[in-house]
Each structure stands twice: as C-alpha cells, then as structure tokens.
Amino acid sequence: MTAYPAADSTKSHLICAAGELAALHGIDNVSTRAIAERAGENIGSIHYHFGGKDGLMEEMVRGAIAGCRHDVEREVVAELPEKPTPEELSSAVRQIVVREMDDLFRSNRPLWHSQVIYQLMQRDDELYRIFRRDVMEPNLDSLYRFLRLIDPSLTDEQAFAHVAILKMPIFAHANYRKAMLDHLGTEDFSESYFRTLENLLVRQTQLLLGLPQD
User: Fold this and answer.
1) Average pLDDT over residues 145-159
2) 82, 112, 140, 176 — which has fewest CB within 10 A?
3) According to CATH, where is 1.10.10.60 located in the chain?
4) What is d(CA 203, CA 108) in angstroms, rounded to the nearest whole number?
C-alpha cells in the first residue's frame, strides 16, 4: 500500500499529540478525543491509522525510543584502542556524559520523549517491555562492558550503582526540568550550568573508579 504524504502527516500529528499529552497527564490518562483535538485531526483517524488507542500509544512509545541514542556507550567503547590507558578511559567517561547531555538538551528531540520514557520505567506492561528490550538492556550491557574495562571485578550490582550515579542526574534534569528551572528562576539551563553538571558527574565517577581526573 502506498504511503501518501498527507497520511504520514496525520500519523505524525497524532503521535506527537499523544506524546505531549502523555507527558502532561500520564500515559493512562489520555483520551482519544483529547489526542485528536490537540492534533487537529478527526478522531476516526486514530482507528484508521493505528487500529485504536493502544496501537497509537505503542507507536508513540516507539517514537520516543527511536529518539534515544541508546548506542552512546557502544560508540564510545568502539572508539577506544584495544588496550586503553587510564587516561583514555577517563576521557571516555567524559565523552559518555557529554553525549548523553547533548542528546537530551542540545538536540531537536521533543521534550516529551524523555518524560514518556521516565513513565515507562515505572510500568509493568507491554509498553515497558518494549522499552526494556530495545533501550534498557542494550544500554546497560554496553555500560557494564565499559565499566569492566576499568574494573573487571565489578559485580552487576556494583556496575549498576555506578550507572545510576553517572546517568540518573542527567535524566532527572530532563524529567523535572520545569520544577528545576522554576527554582533557578530562569527559562532554560545555561551552558555554564551544564558545564558545572558535566564536571561534577565526570569527576565523581573518575574518582570512584580510580581514574585520573581530566
């Protein structure tokens, strides 16, 4: 079946509207009528293009997942030499943080992507399983392999704790963006703030892993 531009545009409008509303009100609290109204589309188009609300929400989740650069760590590890020095591993820690921050805050990704993903991590259904299979497990696998280049003795629990310390503050700034900006009294995070956050995350990780600080 030929995909016409108008049909693609309608689908895109509906997916974006569903994501924006899910970010605002929660995935389970969004009606098809509200989605259609926000998208400026006929409510029947949801059934026509997605088979109903469940199909639309699954496509919305896949859209958010597709926006994730869950290969950041894999890219960084691939760029390392076969036997990296402590200095090269230390630099790789910074590259992971910088690329994650670039992806969330300096790209054209819609804000609702990270907010929807945050909600997925608190669910136990097919949407969560899609996210876990396509994003979480590949991401953690790459990070564990990277961390064990630094310390081969790390258990899964220890490796996960390092991952949480390194990455969760970045995600928190995306998911609680409005509250944080309200507290700071500004409309957006400044580059100087991002540099401070970057240095704190990088240097604490370097210190905890016994790497030289750059």
Assistant:
1) 95
2) 82
3) 5-63
4) 28
The Cα 158–Cα 153 span in angstroms is 9
Reported as a single tens digit per residue, the pLDDT across 60-93 is: 988 888 766 556 778 888 889 989 999 999 999 9
pTM of the model: 0.79
CATH of domain 5-63: 1.10.10.60
DSSP letter for 14, please. H
Q: What is the pLDDT of residues 181-201, one digit of tens each?
A: 999 999 999 999 999 999 999
CB 68 within 8 A of CB 104: no
Segment 157-189, tens digit of pLDDT: 999 999 999 999 998 998 888 899 999 999 999
- Residue burial 118-133, b: 16+ Cβ < 10 Å; e: rest: ebbeeeeeebbeebee
Question: Is there a contact between 32 and 46 (Cβ–Cβ < 8 Å)?
Answer: yes
Phi, psi values for residue 2, rounded to 5°: -75, 135
- The superfamily CATH assigns to domain 67-208 is Tetracycline Repressor, domain 2 (1.10.357.10)
- Measured between alpha carbons, how far is 138 from 108 in angstroms, rounded to an integer? 23
Q: Where in the chain is the domain with CATH 1.10.357.10?
A: 67-208
Tell me how far apart the alpha carbons of residues 159 and 19 are, in angstroms, rounded to a whole number.
32
